[in-house]
Amino acid sequence: MAAAAVLLVAPAAVACGDDSGGGGESDPPKPSAEKSTQDVPSDAPSDDATAPADPAAAEKEVKENFEKFFDPAVSMKEKEAVLENGPKMRAVLKSFSGDERGEQVSAEVNKVEFTSATEADVTYALTLKGATALPSASGTSVNEDDTWKVSVKTLCALVKLSGNASPGPGC
């Protein structure tokens, strides 16, 4: 989980750095354009939406796809279909699923909280050989191509948690 936090904080820290060498004496840049909602139809989805249009259906799909992703009986192709950037993450997915522990892991989603119309925080219990290994694991789900998928961040954090310092391309 710490690795996931570093991945989230590092880009923000870099973006906030001061490359001017002036010690931050000048005013921060001002936005050059403001969003206007005048020309946006009332039924158009908002970029600021905090949940998908149908939260109940989206939550059901997040749960199903998270549990499918961690089900040892599900084929690699099916897991790839519910993983963000699945085809690009094939090598990492094979490494994770091919590991002895990966073949014994399953998950049960406890909570889904939408942070936007296309992202959700997911709390789930991860079991190993039927015994709860992580009762309150945290991950994320993203809506990619109209399908709610396990995020790359979630997979990479789990691979790193397993002790693999170099999980592979994409992480």
Automatic annotation (TrEMBL):
Q: Which InterPro entries match?
A: Mtb12-like_C
Low molecular weight antigen MTB12-like C-terminal domain: which residues? Answer: 55-166
- In residue numbers, the region (Disordered) covers 15-60
Judging by the UniProt lineage, the source's domain of life is Bacteria
Q: Where is the composition biased (Low complexity)?
A: 41-56
Instruction: Give the record's keywords alphabetically.
Output: Signal
Q: Which family does it belong to?
A: Belongs to the MTB12 family.
Supply the name of the protein: Low molecular weight antigen MTB12-like C-terminal domain-containing protein
Q: Which organism is it from?
A: Streptomyces durmitorensis
